[in-house]
């Protein structure tokens, strides 16, 4: 088994399952959570190349279905982050659920939880809308309840956080007793909110696919321009930093020039260029909101 990384540091110890290129780990860093990813698990070789490039650690690439409770106990993890394959649950797929081989590893991990000597105190699970009605979801909740976890479940869209990306996602937060959530009235519920989460909102039990189209349109004015989320590489310290150099209204000529501002150096904005024909063809499927991004004025990177 691959050697755990950062095992001697401080903070909460985290295991990242189905790590991909490191989206969960990056989120921990971005949120400035006092945590260290002591191991990541990902079977895809190319994704691991990217993960290693970004974080200096290569995830464990073995079949996680072969992991035992003793293997996981060795990490002494406080939290697990899990983003299992979505194909068994997506409405555009065959929806084979637990009969899909891509669901087997997640089910295997869940089955190990009751046998852990040192179970995590927290779990975070992410997946597509549709997972919440699956047999796999039922198994997840059943095992968490049996092993003394409290859950809160949400269907949320990035629009609610001011990000111009309109695909809702399922999230499950779980804490092991005696830990508890601040808003206990949300315990054991599946919640959605059609309003921006930085405003006051009323919670509603959700049994359907996120918010309505009308609700999503109402969220559009709350979104920030896409250039706020584009990042440039600072060659002086090799850190990813938010770019304030890109402004709405940059022309195509500007995007092909080099320069610097007070905080960042950059050689070209071509790295963010997406041909208009691709945006037109795939923008809707990828949840990109043309009215928010201002496609008429800037070339964007489809985040």
SSE map:
Elements: E1 12-17, H1 23-30, E2 35-41, H2 45-55, H3 69-73, E3 79-82, H4 104-112, E4 122-128, H5 135-146, E5 149-156, E6 169-176, E7 190-192, E8 204-205, H6 213-219, E9 231-234, E10 239-242, E11 259-260, E12 265-266, H7 276-282, H8 290-293
Parallel strand pairs: 1-2, 1-3, 3-4, 5-7
Antiparallel strand pairs: 4-6, 5-6, 7-8, 9-10, 11-12
Describe the 3D structure.
With 303 residues, this protein is of the alpha/beta class. Helix content is 21%, strand content 19%. It has eight helices and twelve strands. The chain has helices at 23-30, 45-55, 69-73, 104-112, 135-146, 213-219, 276-282, 290-293, and strands at 12-17, 35-41, 79-82, 122-128, 149-156, 169-176, 190-192, 204-205, 231-234, 239-242, 259-260, 265-266. It has an eight-stranded mixed beta sheet, sandwiched between helices. The model is unreliable at 2-8, 198-210, 232-266 and 289-303 (pLDDT under 50).
Strand composition percent: 15-25%
Number of strands: 12
Radius of gyration: 21 Å
Backbone shape:
globular
Mean pLDDT: 75
DSSP summary: helix tally: 8
Which sequence of SSEs, written as H and E, runs from N to C?
EHEHHEHEHEEEEHEEEEHH
Report the helical percentage: 10-25%
Q: Largest sheet, if any?
A: 8 strands, mixed
Class from secondary-structure proportions: alpha/beta
Distance between the termini: 33 Å
Descriptive terms for the model:
eight-stranded mixed β-sheet; 21% helix; 12 strands; disordered C terminus; disordered N terminus; alpha/beta; 303 residues
In short:
This protein has 303 residues and is of the alpha/beta class.
């Amino acid at each position: 088994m691959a050697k755990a990384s950062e095992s001697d540091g401080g903070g909460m110890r985290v295991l990242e399952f189905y790590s991909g290129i490191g989206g969960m780990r990056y989120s921990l860093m971005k949120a400035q959570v006092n945590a260290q990813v002591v191991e990541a698990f990902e079977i895809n070789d190319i994704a691991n190349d990217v993960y290693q490039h970004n974080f200096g650690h290569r995830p464990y690439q073995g079949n996680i279905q072969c992991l035992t409770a003793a293997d996981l106990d060795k990490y002494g993890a406080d939290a697990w982050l899990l983003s299992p394959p979505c194909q068994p649950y997506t409405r555009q797929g065959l929806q084979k659920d637990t009969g899909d081989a891509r669901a087997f590893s997640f089910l295997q991990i869940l089955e190990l939880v009751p046998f852990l000597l040192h179970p995590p105190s927290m779990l975070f699970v992410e997946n597509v809308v549709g997972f919440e009605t699956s047999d796999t979801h039922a198994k997840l909740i059943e095992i968490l309840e049996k092993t003394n976890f409290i859950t809160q479940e949400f269907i949320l869209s990035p629009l609610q956080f001011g990000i111009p990306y309109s695909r809702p996602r399922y999230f499950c937060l779980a804490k092991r007793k005696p830990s508890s959530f601040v808003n206990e009235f949300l315990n054991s519920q599946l919640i959605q909110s059609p309003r921006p989460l930085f405003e006051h909102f009323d919670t509603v039990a959700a049994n359907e696919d996120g918010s309505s189209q009308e609700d999503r349109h109402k969220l559009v004015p709350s979104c920030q321009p896409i250039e706020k989320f584009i990042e440039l590489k600072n060659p002086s310290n090799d850190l990813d930093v938010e770019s304030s150099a890109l402004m709405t209204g940059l022309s195509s000529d500007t995007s092909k020039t080099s320069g610097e501002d007070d905080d960042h150096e950059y050689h070209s904005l071509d790295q963010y260029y997406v041909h208009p024909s691709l945006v037109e063809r795939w923008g809707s499927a990828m949840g990109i909101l043309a009215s928010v991004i201002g496609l008429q004025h800037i070339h964007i990177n489809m985040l």
